[in-house]
Amino acid sequence: MRKDSRLSRMLHVLIHMDQLDAPATSDKIASMLNTNPVVVRRTMAGLRDKGYVTSVKGHGGGWSLEIPLSKITLFDIHDALGDSSVFTIGLSDEHTSCPIEIAVNKAISDALIEAEALLLARFKDVTLDVLALGFTDYPPNMKAFSGE
User: Which of these, 89, 46, 41, lies nearest to 63 by C-alpha position?
Assistant: First the structure.
């Protein structure tokens, strides 16, 4: 089962962007993430729509943080990416009239809902500047972002 890594990837990108003196192009971000620039633009557009980043087209353009990391939470980014479920566990739907399957699905579903609520509440308490604390000694032109 494929996992959705957009949250961790965008947190990674945003913390790098905070260290830069200039905007980061979609090409540079895509190179760092080993993906396509179109994927970067589509994903970053959700963050731009929520006001966390800005973009400038043309020479010298790219993506920049609009607000400080201290004002952005894990929940904010999770929400901006489309508010997908944080868990990928699926429920069985092969025997929908079976009382055992119904009971099992209800128990799993209830536990997932409760766990997700706790996790998302925790996401609201963690700001991106806290994640970046251990990385403040890195130079602003880190190789991963400079394309070297």
Answer: 41
Residue 19 has which token pair?
A: 């260290």
Token pair in block for residue 89: 């566990």
Q: Give the pair of three-digit tokens for residue 118.
A: 């706790």
Give pTM, 2 decimals. Answer: 0.78
Rg (CA), the chain: 19
Task: Give me the residue label for tokens 């965008």.
Answer: 10
Q: Where are the domains of the chain?
A: 6-85+127-146
pLDDT digits (tens, 9 = 90+) for 58-99: 888 899 999 999 999 999 999 999 867 777 677 777 777 888
Under DSSP, the state recorded for 91 is: P
**Domain 6-85+127-146 CATH (choose: 3.90.1710.10, 1.10.645.10, 1.10.10.10, 2.60.120.330):** 1.10.10.10
